[in-house]
Design a protein that fits this description.
about 110 residues, alpha/beta, 2 helices, 5 strands, globular
Amino acid sequence: CVSHTHRLAKEKYVTFDMLSDEKLIMYNTDSAQNDMILSRFHSMQIQPNILMYCSQLYTTLNFLRKGDCAAFLYSSLAVNPRDFVQIPLEPRLSTDFGKRTLSRPFVLPNL
């Protein structure tokens, strides 16, 4: 995701090579999304230029408005198309979140 004034805003897609020198805002350091993204960068021997890690969408979007950085956001997040451009990543990353079933009931201890 970038602002409309960003140099990548008119691209049909972006690649990890295209993002190699880009200032990036990443989600929380413990997120599965970051693990996948950083693994892909490292497998391509690219050192990402991480501006910051942020869990607040509001803060991330305010940084993006300046037009000099990019952020990895889930495609399901609704961002204002008047201010921001969602650009697909190629090759596409996908996640499969599974549901974990407990074999016995989970009971909280008395606190």
